[in-house]
Amino acid sequence: KLFFTDYGNAAKVERCDMDGMNRTWIVDSKIEQPTALALDLINKYVYWLDIYLESVEVVDYQGRRRQTITKGRQFRHLCGLAVFENYLYTINSDNFSILQINRYNGTDVQALARLDNAKEIRVYQKRTQAAVRSHACEADPYGMPGGCAHLCLLSSSYKARTCRCRTGFILGSDGRSCK
Q1: What are the start and end residues of each LDL-receptor class B repeat (predicted)?
Q2: Lowest-confidence segment of 127-131, 133-137, 155-159, 169-173 by average pLDDT
Q3: Which pLDDT belongs to residue 147?
């Protein structure tokens, strides 16, 4: 799945399949400017920052069990969001400090370090890397990903895929070639 935020005409947190199909709103009320999100892949939770509401909130992948982690003026200038173990990590864009927020007790907030002009934060950890034995976009005997001429996008599961073409090309009637 692909998760993303939108604060155009109607602010929301959404999800869709990697090929853009099955687009679903998972949060569309009591939300104003969701600017960053992070996924807990193990427990299937979506965390997001709302800089207008000055809050950090969470829901499950279906948009249920919504909770406010923390709220207040100190969260007005945050950008970027990452989750690792018991903590959320974000950047305060006023002073470029890395903040650590206990995701179970939002009152436990600590500044860890300062970076020059940081706008985003990511945590890379081996446990968060999906282990899939095989998937629909693996290269075929001719080296084409999923048998697609240009792009292979995973669909509703790792066993399903959709072929797409680069800009200026049209997908052929076979659903794989590009013209």
Answers
A1: 1-43
A2: 127-131
A3: 93
Beta bridge partners of 163: 152
- Please check the confidence at residue 163 and state whether its pLDDT lies above 80: yes
74, pLDDT greater than 80: no
The residue type found at 82 is A
Task: Residue 40: name the closest of 54, 24, 59 by CA.
Answer: 59
Long-range contacts of 130-136 (CB under 8 A, 24+ apart): 130/41, 132/158, 135/159, 135/161, 136/160, 136/161
Cβ–Cβ under 8 Å, residues 123 and 89: yes
Pull the structure tokens for residue 168.
């200026």
Please state, in angstroms and rounded to a whole number, the distance separating the CA atoms of residues 100 and 123.
12
Structural domains of the chain, with CATH: 2-128 (2.120.10.30), 131-178 (2.10.25.10)
Angle at 173 between CA 145 and CA 143, to 5 degrees: 15
Torsion angle of C-alpha atoms 94, 47, 103, 109, degrees rounded to 10:
10
95 C-beta neighbours (distance < 10 Å), count? 10
**Token pair belonging to 47:** 């965390």
Structure tokens at 149: 């001429």
| Token couple for 177 | 């070639």
| Residue closest to 54 by CA, chosen among 71, 41, 38 | 71
